[in-house]
């Protein structure tokens, strides 16, 4: 009678002890490499200024007017007549809000005048006209 030896079976297990470390490293990697999008507005060329002041983002309504007269409020394209309603609604929720007005240096003045009239009717008295800060050249 022949003796048979019992075969030892190798278990196939996937080690999961370092899974938490890998997940944590992936989380950190994606947090570091992610770019958050800020308001983009319309592509405009701002006029030059000699001084500028930073305003907290949560207290600002951004209005852009490009060279063709297209209007954007906080990354939303709007028609000229809608400016008053949007601004007055935001002013009701935050009375201390500032309207930052970005216009292309070649934008039509009629569109800018229409927007300014609507801002007056919406009682937006805190208006900031944005520009690029010009570097001073010493001679």
Secondary-structure map with pairings?
Layout: H1 19-33, E1 48-49, E2 60-65, E3 71-73, E4 76-78, H2 83-93, E5 98-103, H3 109-121, E6 127-129, E7 132-133
Parallel strand pairs: 1-7, 2-5, 5-6
Antiparallel strand pairs: 2-3, 3-4
Helix pairs in contact: 2-3
By DSSP, the count of extended strands is 7
Strand content: 15-25%
In the CATH classification, which architecture of the domain at 48-133 applies? 2-Layer Sandwich
**Total DSSP helices:** 3
The helix/strand series, from N terminus to C terminus, equals HEEEEHEHEE
- Mean pLDDT, all residues: 80
User: How is the biggest beta sheet arranged?
Assistant: 5 strands, mixed
Question: Using only CA atoms, what is the Rg?
Answer: 29 Å
State the end-to-end distance.
Answer: 109 Å
Query: Which stretches are poorly predicted, pLDDT < 50 over at least 5 residues?
Result: 134-139
The assigned structural class equals alpha/beta
Shape: rod-shaped
With strands numbered from the N-terminus, the spatial order across the biggest sheet is 4-3-2-5-6
């Amino acid at each position: 009678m022949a003796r048979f030896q019992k075969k030892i079976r190798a278990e196939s297990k996937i080690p999961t002890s370092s899974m938490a470390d890998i997940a944590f490293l992936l989380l950190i990697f994606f947090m570091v490499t992610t770019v958050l999008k800020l308001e983009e507005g319309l592509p405009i060329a701002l006029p030059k200024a000699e001084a500028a002041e930073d305003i907290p983002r949560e207290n600002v309504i951004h209005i852009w007017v490009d060279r063709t007269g297209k209007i954007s409020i906080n990354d939303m394209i709007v028609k000229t007549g809608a400016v008053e309603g949007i601004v007055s609604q935001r002013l009701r929720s935050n009375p201390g809000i500032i309207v930052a007005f970005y216009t292309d240096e070649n934008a039509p003045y009629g569109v800018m005048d229409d927007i300014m009239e609507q801002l007056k009717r919406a009682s937006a008295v805190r208006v900031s006209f944005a520009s690029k800060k010009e570097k001073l050249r010493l001679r």
